Amino acid sequence: PGHWPGVIEAYRDRMPVEPGWRVVTLAEGGTPLLPAPRLSERTGCQVYLKVDGANPTGSFKDRGMTMAVTAALAEGKQGVLCASTGNTSASAAAYAARAGMTCVVLVPQGKIALGKLAQAVAHGARILQIEGNFDDCLELARKTTADYPVAALVNSVNPTRIAGQASAAYEICDQLGQAPDVHCLPVGNAGNITAYWKGYRGYHADGLISDLPRMFGFQAAGAAPLVHGAPVTSPETIATAIRIGSPASWNGAVAARDESHGKIAAVSDDEILAAYRMLSAEEAVFVEPASAASVAGLLQSSADGTLPRGSLVVCTVTGHGLKDPDTALLTAPEPEIVPIDPGAVASALELA
Ligand code: F0G
Fold first, then answer.
1. Does residue 268 share a domain with residue 195?
2. Does 184 share its domain with 325?
3. Would residue 343 count as lying in a domain?
4. 301 found inside a domain
5. CA–CA distance, 17 with 325 (Å, rounded to integer)
6. How far is the CA of 188 from the centre of ligand 1 (A)?
7. Which residues pair with 315 in a beta bridge?
8. What is the pLDDT of residues 134-152, one digit of tens each?
9. 55 in ligand 1 pocket by Cβ < 6 Å?
10. Beta strand 312-317 with 151-153: parallel, antiparallel or unpaired?
């Protein structure tokens, strides 16, 4: 018994944290590793979902942000700055509020999901919309913190973020008692695939797991620079979280793919939306569209034969469905209006 202390305390010996630092935590991590019976049936594999939308701000970013903001505070930084497609900004805003630091977020104009914007506002961040895409925002954030080092850059180009995010791999190994055979995840700026691979390798080097997983990363077809082998100038996808044309952790993603004998493939917006709807309707796990890219990729890999039947598979679902209510309601019918009458309700239940 006892409470979950957050990822820094849970894995302190693996985190770049010094004794005496004030740990800025919202008790992130410790998220469910949920069996997925319908996906298992469809693929002939044993499939689990790592439900990272269950983190305090609703995405996996919290795992890295606890570390980045803890380090920023210890280094005496006065504020935190990030570029974001939405989740990083929500997380940075929350952890900065907890630390009592100011937070500025740079987001691509008109391309961030409503829930994420609401979070950044609620936590008191200054939100600057940039006339450009995520890649432009990140370049501006890097230039700004180079010129004004009193602000900490809390994007995943910051190695403390990667160290924090590696905790998800530790949790999966601790929960399963081994690494999965295959790990599927969505790839945008490529920090997370880099972090998972670092986490698995760390556990492997210390003898805590005997085998490493194959890493399967999935990009949206309209934003798939790692699949094409070249940056994409105008990335487009309904999965705004991964609408990125020039991933900062390019080399980390390629190393994860090649060293693990894995792959990085593209999934279309239609495949993403089909997986998105399947997850909420059949597995009862409501995720945002980018998160469904991992499951779209799982189904694609099962169909094209690159995923061996019988594999133990973990798909990370990275962000909560409530982040993006607009996409959820895109094709939904208007709620029906009925009289105050049990008969009308019973007929909706198909009982009358
Ligand atoms: N899934 C979600 C829900 C995300 O928000 C992101 C990235 C990814 C997957 C991809 O992870 O970038 O490490 O490859 N979101 C960033 C942001 C870019 O600004 O919130 P990655």
1. yes
2. yes
3. no
4. yes
5. 37
6. 6
7. 49, 184
8. 999 999 999 999 999 999 9
9. no
10. unpaired
Name the average pLDDT for the chain: 97
81 and 221 fall within a common domain: no
Ligand 1 pocket test: which of 49, 50, 59 has the largest number of ligand atoms within 8 Å of its C-beta? Answer: 59
Which residues lie below 8 Å from residue 314, measured CB to CB, with a gap of 6+? 33, 47, 48, 49, 50, 172, 176, 180, 182, 183, 184, 213
pLDDT in tens, 36-47: 999 999 999 999
If one residue of 51, 63, 81, 87 were mutated to test the ligand 1 pocket, choosing by the most ligand atoms within 8 A of its CB, it would be: 87
d(CA 179, CA 160): 23
User: For the chain, how many structural domains are there in total?
Assistant: 2
CB distance 130 to 108 below 8 Å = yes
- For 138, half-sphere exposure in the C-beta direction (CA atoms, 13 angstrom radius) is 21
Q: Is residue 28 part of a domain?
A: yes
**What sign does the CA torsion over 103, 108, 114, 116 have?**
negative
Are 87 and 111 contacting, i.e. CB atoms less than 8 angstroms apart?
no
- Classified as helix, coil or strand, 215 is strand
Mean pLDDT value across residues 87-103: 98
User: Quick one: tokens of 182?
Assistant: 């295959």
Q: Are residues 41 and 148 in the same domain?
A: no
Q: How much of the chain exceeds pLDDT 90, in percent?
A: 98
What's the domain range around 116?
61-157
